[in-house]
């Protein structure tokens, strides 16, 4: 199977139907033991220091891992992706553009997905057959999520990891299914994680993966990962077809649509507070203004840049926020 890079979640059903092995370049970048080398490659090739580390990491991962084709989302995700694709195309990499229409109309979403299928020369029947297969794995991710906030047996990091991996299914559907089945089986045998504070994580997946272990030191537990959960399409089985599924995907559309789902999850998961992670130099940081106005819950905004570990200042801010939440709860352990 030919490898094809992804800049973010796209209709991966089409990619698999076309016989490709999708590789989420974000995952390839951030899971590398030497992730900084990808940023260094980008800056050496002229990318400015005042640019999102994710964009530079994606570029470096693409170049260093000999990716010859890439799908880039030019609307509905990072505002810098279009420029990134132009540079990659100049380097001889074949680019397939995709967009989540700003209008967020069903007919417009359908139109873009049909265009995407035409690019890869696959029809709807073949795509739907793949979707049916992938949805069986998405059910496993949904079960892991429920084991996080209903039974409190999954750690926040595991919840993050298994859901975010469904952006590309490891490029190997069978292996992904086996791994998630094993995870479900192992997690079910555990005792509940008895933490007092139930946290939600919203915003792009973090550069600083140690945030999950850090909050647990202060009697807190992430029971919701917003964007990671959307990557796993928890409502996919409710969609009649691929068009409805990607219409219902909250992340790439307007903030109002996203907030409706956030409100549902805050209520269902009985969250005590939210950590809103934003990336340095990213336009999405401005959305924090709307989020804090619309959501009636304590929210702490933290910002990441190049480091893959929390810095001392952020740790202090997190600790103070968690202390405040503990005071609001009166130090009483919640009933599981």
TrEMBL record:
Q: Which domain of life is it from?
A: Bacteria
This protein's UniProt keywords: Iron, Iron-sulfur, Metal-binding
Q: Which GO terms describe its molecular function?
A: hydro-lyase activity; iron-sulfur cluster binding
The yes or no answer to whether the keyword Transmembrane is present is no
Q: What are the names of the required cofactors?
A: [4Fe-4S] cluster
Similarity annotation: Belongs to the FldB/FldC dehydratase alpha/beta subunit family.
The name under which this protein is listed is 2-hydroxyacyl-CoA dehydratase
Q: Does the keyword Iron apply?
A: yes
Q: Which InterPro entries match?
A: FldB/FldC_alpha/beta (IPR010327)
């Amino acid at each position: 199977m030919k490898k094809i890079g992804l800049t973010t979640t796209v209709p991966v059903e089409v990619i698999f139907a076309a016989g490709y092995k999708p590789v989420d370049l974000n995952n390839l970048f951030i899971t590398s033991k030497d992730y900084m080398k990808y940023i260094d490659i980008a800056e050496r090739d002229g990318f400015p220091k005042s640019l999102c580390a994710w964009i530079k990491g994606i570029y470096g991962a693409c170049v260093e891992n000999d990716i010859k084709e890439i799908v880039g989302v030019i609307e509905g995700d990072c505002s810098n992706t279009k420029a990134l694709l132009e540079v990659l195309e100049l380097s001889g990499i074949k680019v397939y553009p995709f967009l989540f229409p700003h209008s967020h109309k069903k007919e417009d979403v359908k139109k873009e997905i049909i265009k995407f299928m035409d690019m890869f020369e696959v029809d709807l029947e073949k795509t739907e057959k793949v979707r049916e297969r992938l949805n069986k794995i998405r059910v496993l991710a949904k079960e892991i999520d429920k084991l996080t906030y209903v039974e409190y047996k999954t750690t926040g990091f595991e919840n993050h990891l298994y859901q975010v991996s469904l952006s590309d299914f490891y490029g190997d559907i069978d292996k992904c299914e086996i791994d998630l089945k094993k995870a479900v089986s192992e997690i079910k045998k555990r005792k509940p994680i008895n933490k007092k504070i139930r946290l939600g994580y919203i915003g792009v997946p973090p550069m600083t993966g140690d945030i999950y272990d850090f909050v647990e030191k202060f009697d807190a537990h992430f029971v919701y990962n917003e964007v990671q959960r959307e990557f796993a399409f928890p409502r996919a089985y409710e969609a009649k077809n691929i068009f409805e599924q990607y219409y219902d995907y909250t992340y790439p559309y307007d903030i109002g649509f996203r907030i409706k789902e956030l409100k549902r999850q805050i209520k269902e998961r009985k969250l005590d507070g939210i950590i809103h992670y934003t990336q340095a130099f990213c336009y999405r940081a401005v959305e924090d203004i709307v989020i804090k106005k619309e959501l009636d819950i304590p929210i702490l905004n933290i910002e990441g840049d190049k480091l893959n570990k929390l810095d001392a200042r952020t740790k202090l801010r997190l600790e103070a926020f968690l202390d405040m939440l503990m005071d609001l709860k009166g130090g009483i352990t919640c009933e599981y």
